[in-house]
């Protein structure tokens, strides 16, 4: 598109939904790690502990956490004074670019954003890696029944953690300054990796793979007739 401008309200809305959905996904990954912990370390109590109500609470907490994280970003950015020219050195609105446009000292604000985004992301990343590492060790030393399926699930989750947190750590765990790789990482963070999410999950699911094979067979058999 040749349209390269965006209104301030649309920019704030884009920033809000970017962090709202990203924050919710981070909390969902934590909930999934807790689910795997119960399934692997307390298998006999899984049905008792992971009831439908607890699942709803975990999902609701994930969305509430994402909303809280995002609204903090918006609350600080929306009151900043902008004197122009308001040109973003990227193809979407994010807090790291919008803050640099403000015609005021943003050092304290950048530190708050770093804590709210960068530090939180990094701590969650380390905790998730530790938790999945412990689970994989437990699987290696535990009983063999269901071991391969559980290990496969944990491996899938670890891949998702790296895919999700890698670009986020690069973007938010450093000073808000422009670097040559910023646009490349932004493309992967907003377009490529989100598309990989369903692929990573579904291509490791036997039921979905068998359903895809049936659909392909029906398609080719239909064309053959």
Task: Describe, in plain words, how this protein is organized in 3D.
- The structure is a single chain.
- This protein has 225 residues and is mainly α.
- It has a single domain, classed as Rhodopsin 7-helix transmembrane proteins (Rhopdopsin 7-helix transmembrane proteins, Up-down Bundle).
- 75% of the residues lie in helices and 0% in strands.
- The chain is built from eight helices and no strands.
- The chain has helices at 8-41, 46-49, 52-77, 95-98, 107-141, 147-172, 182-202, 206-224.
- α1 (8-41) packs parallel to α5 (107-141) and α1 packs antiparallel against α6.
- It is globular, with a radius of gyration of 21 Å.
Topology (elements, then pairings):
Elements: H1 8-41, H2 46-49, H3 52-77, H4 95-98, H5 107-141, H6 147-172, H7 182-202, H8 206-224
Main attributes of the structure:
225 residues, mainly alpha, Rhopdopsin 7-helix transmembrane proteins, 8 helices, globular
What's a quick, concise take on this entry?
The chain has helices at 8-41, 46-49, 52-77, 95-98, 107-141, 147-172, 182-202, 206-224. With 225 residues, the protein is mainly alpha-helical.
Rg estimate, integer Å: 21 Å
The residue-averaged pLDDT reads: 83
Give unreliable regions as ranges: none
Name the shape in a single word: globular
The percent range for helix content is over 70%
Q: Treating each run of at least 4 consecutive H or I residues as one helix, how many helices?
A: 8
Into how many domains do the coordinates divide?
Answer: 1
- Major β-sheet, in short? none
Question: How many E-type strands?
Answer: 0
Order of helical and strand elements: HHHHHHHH
What share of residues are in beta strands?
under 5%
Annotated CATH architecture: Up-down Bundle
Oligomer: single chain
